[in-house]
Write a structure and sequence with these properties.
The chain is of the alpha+beta class and 73 residues long. It has one domain (2-72): 3-Layer(aba) Sandwich (Aminopeptidase). The protein has 2 helices and 4 strands, in the order E-H-E-H-E-E. The chain has helices at 16-30, 45-50; strands at residues 2-3, 35-39, 54-56, 68-72. The chain has a 4-stranded mixed beta sheet. The longest helix has 15 residues, at 16-30. The two termini are 13 Å apart.
Length: 73
């Protein structure tokens, strides 16, 4: 699980976030995991969608984080 991915605004839109996410996916693959679950902030929604992650629906509002994304490895 990746609970947030933060890049200083000065360094955004330079590929830093994509490289960090790729490193997480690579490590998940090395560990034999099925994928990476990301808990995201609303302002990062466009980034994760742009990276091809699937947004998961909220099934239980008392338990599920509002913005969750899945990246299958």
């Amino acid at each position: 699980m990746l609970h947030g991915l933060y890049v200083d605004p000065v360094h955004q839109r330079q590929g830093v976030g994509a490289q960090l996410l790729a490193a997480c996916v690579t490590r998940a693959r090395e560990l034999g995991l099925d994928g990476v679950l990301v808990k995201a902030q609303a302002d990062a929604e466009a980034f994760f969608r742009g990276q091809g992650l699937e947004r998961l629906e909220v099934r239980d509002e008392s338990r599920d984080y509002a913005l969750r994304y899945w990246h299958r490895v």
